[in-house]
Design a protein that fits this description.
15 strands, 6-stranded mixed sheet, Hsp33 domain, single chain, about 325 residues, alpha+beta, CBS domain Like
Length: about 325
């Protein structure tokens, strides 16, 4: 079996525990996305975790299209958007108050960064106009806890998620060492043949009436073991380039006969272009476009990849007409 490299997702199954899961390892793709904006470290880590979470979620879906994870808050980091487009392209960006982020402690927790807000996951299939969206409150000490609440509330499938992002020192022969961002994540979901084995407890306080019946059963032993094994994954195991996805899985599920499947490759890729920006500007009225002119030109910056576009107003087609 050939070990998987960076920038991929490795699906796996542990039949003895009735779980399926995925391991994501992001190297140059994550570093490329984060370096384009030179975010503060705390913002880079949060955006990186959101990108990995979106990858773990999206690659479990058997569909062509886009999956968008969006976090909106009233905190120092007010917006995070990540976009996975099948079969393998990633992008993402963050909006934040630089002064407010700089005033935080060196390693702020999630509440310090986001205050209150929501996380939405939107599934946008390519072959239909119908979108699907799930929304959850940004409560908890980490994005992992928010993810657990999302899966409990939206999917009713027992799910465990581990995420890690770190800036590491990369050494290449003949080159000076350089700092690069790396990230990784692992998730498992309990999928037994007998649905009655699944226990999903309500999220307190919930919205059910006080006298509503609650599922007070203990969780299945197989799921308790699988979740505990997944939770034991250490941050350094998720980001260390010397620890392959296969090696991590063997450590987590030793003696449980873990099976792996064909990996998914990943790459940092934005969808912007001169043509797309021109089409977007063509949707505005001439009056609106005139208000965008600065120093004789209309300037547009892609928030995802930070690419700058400059257009002369007279070269743009009138609204509603092709260029």
């Amino acid at each position: 079996m050939t070990a998987t490299a960076d920038d991929c997702v490795l699906p796996f199954a542990v039949d003895a525990l009735d779980v399926r899961g995925r391991v994501a390892r992001l190297g140059s793709s994550l570093d490329d996305i984060l370096r384009r904006h030179d975010y503060p470290p705390a913002v880079s880590r949060l955006l990186g975790e959101a990108i990995i979470l979106n990858v773990l979620f999206a690659t479990a879906l058997k569909m062509e299209g886009r999956v968008i994870l969006q976090i909106q808050t009233d905190g120092p980091v007010s917006l995070i958007v990540t976009d996975y487009t099948s079969p393998d392209s990633l992008r993402g960006y963050a909006r934040f108050d630089a002064d407010a982020v700089a005033a935080l402690a060196e390693n702020p927790d999630l509440a310090d960064l986001v205050g209150t807000g929501t996380m939405a996951l939107t599934i946008d299939p390519r072959d239909t106009v119908r979108r699907y969206q799930g929304v959850v409150e940004m409560t908890g000490k980490s994005l992992e806890e928010v993810a657990h609440a999302y899966f409990t509330q939206s999917e009713q499938i027992p799910t465990m998620v581990r995420l890690a992002v770190a800036e590491t020192l990369e050494r290449r022969p003949g080159e000076e060492p350089r700092r690069v961002w790396r990230g990784g994540g692992v998730t498992v979901q309990f999928l037994p043949e007998a649905a009655e084995r699944i226990v999903v407890h309500d999220i307190d306080p919930g919205d059910a009436p006080d006298d509503a019946a609650r599922d007070e059963r203990d969780e299945d032993d197989a799921w308790i073991e699988a979740a505990a094994r997944t939770q034991s994954a250490q941050d350094h195991e998720l980001v260390d380039p010397e620890i392959t996805a296969e090696r991590l899985l063997l450590r987590l599920f030793n003696e449980r006969d873990v099976r792996v499947f064909d990996p998914f490759s990943l790459s940092a890729e934005c969808h912007c272009s001169n043509e797309r920006i021109q089409v977007m500007l063509g949707q505005f009225s001439e009056e609106d476009r005139a208000s965008m002119v600065e120093d004789g030109a209309i300037k547009v910056t892609c928030e995802f990849c930070n690419t700058h576009y400059v257009f002369e107003p007279e070269t743009l087609a009138p609204r509603g007409k092709p260029h």
